[in-house]
């Protein structure tokens, strides 16, 4: 967590600027639609996923390489329930959350006793195992073939079918998630997370049950990952194991660091920027990947706390 | 006077080494009690046994009459025993006031629901925490740096901040692990005043200390350890004249 030097009443122009930038990107996609709208829609889904990861990694300072597992559980639960069993999307998504939380609870009890590299390895294994299950459990997941014909997002008679409807729906969800993270950060719960992040020994000495708050943080991250997985399959209409592979984890890590670990806006702006950068360099053909890589490295050199972290330090300096 | 803490025949062995050897004493529910002793006397081991970092090999720790020997630090904190650390352990990235607000954890309620919905009781509790944290910073003289990150504070202020944070949990007994270590004379003075004030407000204080001057200034009762054994106990003046203590300190 990054804290301001000035009193909390000082203004936050630069941090607000991050949100304005995010709104402009989404607004642009809403107005012009087409390919860019698809990119931004996926970015917003990642915004939800990375916000969850940020609760665990940013607010609580734990590592998980296995969050894709919970996205897979949410995604597959939604896919199976809304196709084979013809459930509506919302109950399907809720069922996905329940499964993801149960899985996180069972996994979390033994795993969260581990620290640092060991926790990272264990969670990585969970992601890989879930991927294998998605491949092998053909009677439910249809293996590599995947599940198609998943209905679009919708509640009752309202369905999000067009690019703009999808974007609007996802934007609302991202705003709700960001609002929730803001409130968590400033609450007793958020302070307990920050205490675990700062010093487990000191947290324990103040009566904070470290294991319990790690698990709570893990569950929140898993729940948001599950929602992201469900959103993904409804927006694309199709799911296969590749969707929730290692690629998802690497991308999410890039997003959270580029955006700013431990900040509220970081995961959202990180998801948008990291998703859009490749499009920006599309015209450069052969050197496209190189330009993308260099840009990411430059951001991390000049904004080691991410874009939202950079904005916060601007505000802190002005506030002095 | 009632005893808040009782250490009964505490012994701790590390392999063949007996770090704490059959130590017994009680801490009254008011006033300042100090454990002193030369380097390697077993002070820190004794402190860790009391705080719950590890249990004693033999013996018992009673808190308010109840056996808490095997409880973990967080469980002991919940029963009113809160410690500070010899090497200050603050939440570095949080501001001073945020550090103290974390200290109110035990005295407040609320999880995810309270965070997201913010019902009236949770908002009121949050207001109380805010006011209480400001008052504690005032008590230790850190109001001016309330919004500075803990990491940038000078060492003396970090120690005072850690004490303020511990007080937020409203302990019945506050354990201070070498609170004067690394402080200059002026900071030490300020610390002594703060500890007296805490004791005067009705919190029992048990401190482990190397700095004789601080102990003699503020302690009501002194327990002296040497080679893991208790060699003396009494008022600062009595202990100062004790031949066994003089021998231990002058070698």
TrEMBL record, chain B:
A Pfam family cross-referenced in the UniProt record is ABC_tran
Q: Where is the ABC transporter domain?
A: 5-250
Q: Which GO terms describe its molecular function?
A: ATP binding; ATP hydrolysis activity; L-isoleucine transmembrane transporter activity; L-phenylalanine transmembrane transporter activity; L-valine transmembrane transporter activity
- Alphabetized InterPro entries for the sequence: AAA+_ATPase, ABC_AA/LPS_Transport, ABC_transporter-like_ATP-bd, BCA_ABC_TP_C, P-loop_NTPase
Which SUPFAM superfamilies does this one have? P-loop containing nucleoside triphosphate hydrolases
Q: Which UniProt keywords apply?
A: ATP-binding, Nucleotide-binding, Transport
What name has this protein been given in UniProt?
Answer: High-affinity branched-chain amino acid ABC transporter ATP-binding protein LivG
According to its UniProt entry, this protein's organism is Metarhizobium album
- Lineage, opening ranks: Bacteria, Pseudomonadati, Pseudomonadota, Alphaproteobacteria, Hyphomicrobiales
């Amino acid at each position: 967590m990054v804290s301001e030097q000035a009193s909390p009443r000082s203004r936050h122009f630069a941090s607000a600027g991050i949100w304005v930038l995010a709104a402009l990107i989404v607004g642009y996609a809403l107005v012009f639609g087409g390919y860019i709208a698809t990119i931004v829609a996926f970015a917003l889904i990642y915004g939800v996923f990375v916000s969850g990861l940020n609760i665990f990694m940013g607010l609580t300072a734990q590592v998980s390489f296995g969050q894709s597992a919970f996205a897979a559980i949410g995604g597959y639960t939604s896919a199976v329930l809304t196709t084979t069993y013809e459930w509506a999307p919302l109950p399907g998504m809720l069922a996905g959350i329940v499964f993801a939380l149960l899985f996180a609870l069972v996994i979390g009890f033994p795993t969260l006793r581990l620290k640092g590299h060991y926790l990272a390895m264990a969670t990585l294994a969970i992601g890989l195992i879930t991927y294998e299950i998605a491949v092998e459990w053909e009677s439910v997941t249809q293996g590599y073939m995947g599940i198609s014909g998943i209905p679009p997002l919708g509640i009752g008679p309202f369905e999000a079918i067009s690019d703009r409807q999808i974007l609007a729906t996802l934007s609302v969800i991202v705003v709700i998630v960001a609002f929730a993270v803001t409130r968590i950060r400033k609450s007793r719960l958020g302070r307990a997370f920050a205490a675990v992040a700062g010093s487990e020994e000191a947290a324990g000495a103040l009566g904070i049950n470290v294991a319990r708050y790690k698990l709570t943080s893990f569950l929140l991250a898993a729940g948001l990952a599950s929602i992201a997985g469900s959103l993904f399959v409804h927006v694309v209409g199709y799911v296969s194991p590749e969707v929730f592979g290692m690629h998802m984890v690497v991308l999410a890590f890039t997003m959270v660091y580029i955006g700013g670990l431990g900040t509220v806006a970081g995961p959202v702006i990180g998801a948008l920027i990291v998703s859009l950068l490749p499009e920006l360099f599309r015209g450069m053909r052969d050197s496209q990947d190189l330009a993308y890589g260099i840009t990411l490295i430059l951001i991390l050199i000049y904004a080691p706390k991410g874009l939202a972290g950079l904005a916060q330090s601007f505000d802190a300096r002005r506030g002095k | 006077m009632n005893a808040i803490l009782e250490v009964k025949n505490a012994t701790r062995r590390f392999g063949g080494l007996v770090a704490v050897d059959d130590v017994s004493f009680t801490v009254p529910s008011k006033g300042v009690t100090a454990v002193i002793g030369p380097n390697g006397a077993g002070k820190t081991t004794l402190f860790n046994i009391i705080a719950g970092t590890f249990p004693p090999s033999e013996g018992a720790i009673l808190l308010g009459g109840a056996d808490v020997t095997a409880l973990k630090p967080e469980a002991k904190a919940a029963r009113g025993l809160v410690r500070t650390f010899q090497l200050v352990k603050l939440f570095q990235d949080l501001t001073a006031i945020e550090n103290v607000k974390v200290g109110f954890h035990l005295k407040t309620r609320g999880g995810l629901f309270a965070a997201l919905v913010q019902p009236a009781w949770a908002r009121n509790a949050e207001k109380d925490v805010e006011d209480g944290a400001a008052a504690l910073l005032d008590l230790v003289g850190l109001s001016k740096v309330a919004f500075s990150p803990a990491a940038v504070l000078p060492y003396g202020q970090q120690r005072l901040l850690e004490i303020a944070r511990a007080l937020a949990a409203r302990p019945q007994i506050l354990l201070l692990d070498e609170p004067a270590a690394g402080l200059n004379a002026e900071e030490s003075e300020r610390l002594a005043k703060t500890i007296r004030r805490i004791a005067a407000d009705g919190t029992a204080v048990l401190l482990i200390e190397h700095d004789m001057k601080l102990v003699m200034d503020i302690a009501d009762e002194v327990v002296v350890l040497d080679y893991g054994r208790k060699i003396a106990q009494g008022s600062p003046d009595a202990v100062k004249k004790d031949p066994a203590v003089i021998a231990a300190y002058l070698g």
